[in-house]
Design brief:
alpha/beta, Rossmann fold, seven-stranded parallel β-sheet, six-stranded parallel β-sheet, 13 helices, 36% helix, Glycosyltransferase_grp1
């Protein structure tokens, strides 16, 4: 095998930050890329940019929980070839199970977050299956948790994507982690114009609090809101928008459309629950647009209060969000443009790769 480095990532099902980071590492390190599976026509692998040499270990055409079981078995049993590499970089929750096959290679784990369903959300996850299946589910999770803990403990270096995740690693895994924030391709975002609307780009799930954003704008019919993205709560979010003339629900948009919207809004709104890191605020700032965010999780490490945005209290109370939107006038947002652009450059791909090369080269 010609390459001396390999990046392993769980799978490429939908566009997400973890997959983007793994591909960024593989391309910039000239490394091979190993994954459980990837969906055909995945947007990260289209276009003219040549991709890394890939190896697929499992099938992505299985239902839950067979898919998870397949990934566990694939990374545990089909990765003996890792011993031929000098450096193995792991990304995700399943790929790490191949660490015991790495032999004398240097092993680096980039942790997006310890899997919550094994720790703080264990009981919540277990209750998602019928009662008669719960004993089997607990047994399955206990076995996976043991393998996961042993694999992570064997790593030469553990990297966290934020201070928030670093604290979770210390609490759940009893390990110290080096913090390296994920990369943003800042050059692909730019200021377009000063539009007349605010923009929500958060994934449509319960942790992103999109319903709070909608309720707040329903109380401000003179303020315009555009909502992009998809997710498991899309149907409910669509229904919440019905009848509100000041709210546009756009759903899934292309990368080009997203960048045009970010570059043309007044400001973006991103108020997730205890976010691991959160790339959306960095992309917003890269386009010179301030962020109305929440004072918790990864946003504390990206958005600078009163310089590149406004942070409301943890829990994201609607009255504070309404006030923040009123305070973030077009003129105030425009005055933050330069500070936003400067802040975003601190998370550029070149900064990320410089830090990661230092860790990987030991």
């Amino acid at each position: 095998m010609a390459n001396k480095r390999v990046v392993l990532h769980d799978y490429f099902a939908v566009p997400d930050g973890g997959g983007r980071l793994a591909l960024t590492l593989a391309r910039n390190l000239d490394a091979d890329l190993v994954h459980g599976f990837r969906k055909p026509e995945h947007p990260y692998f289209t276009g003219d940019t040549p991709g890394p040499r890939e190896k697929t270990l499992a099938s992505g055409n299985l239902p839950f929980p067979l898919l998870q079981l397949g990934l566990i078995q694939a990374f545990s049993r089909k990765t003996a070839f890792l011993s031929r590499y000098e450096v193995c970089v792991f990304s995700g929750n399943y790929s790490v199970l191949g660490a015991h096959q790495a032999g004398s290679a240097r092993t680096v784990y980039y942790c997006h977050t310890p899997p919550r369903f094994l720790f703080e959300e264990l009981e919540l996850f277990t209750r998602m299956v019928p009662k008669w299946l719960r004993p089997a589910m607990r047994s399955y999770l206990a076995g996976y948790r043991g393998r996961y803990l042993r694999s992570v403990d064997a790593m030469d270096v553990v990297v966290a994507n934020s201070q928030t995740v670093s604290r979770r690693i210390a609490q759940n895994l009893n390990l110290n982690a080096v913090v390296v924030h994920p990369p943003c391709d800042t050059s692909s975002f730019s200021w377009c114009e000063q539009g007349d609307f605010y923009l929500s780009t958060g994934r449509l799930d319960r942790l992103k609090r999109i319903d709070t954003i909608i309720a707040s704008f329903r109380a401000m019919p003179d303020k315009k809101l555009a909502i992009v993205s998809t997710g498991p709560e899309e149907g409910r979010i669509r229904s919440l928008c019905e009848g509100a003339r000041n709210i546009r629900f756009l759903g899934r948009v292309s990368d080009a459309e997203l960048k045009a919207l970010v570059g043309s809004c007044i400001a973006t709104i991103y108020i997730p629950t205890d976010e691991d890191f959160g790339m959306s605020p960095v992309e917003s700032m890269a386009a010179g647009k301030p962020v109305i965010g929440v004072r918790e999780g990864g946003l504390l490490e990206t958005v600078i209060e009163a310089e590149t945005g406004i942070l409301i209290s943890p829990g994201a109370p609607a009255d504070e969000l309404i006030q923040a939107v009123c305070d973030m006038t077009p003129d105030r947002a425009l005055s933050m443009r330069k500070a936003c652009e400067n802040r975003a450059r601190e998370f550029d791909v070149a900064v990320f790769m410089n830090k990661m090369r230092g860790i990987i080269d030991g």
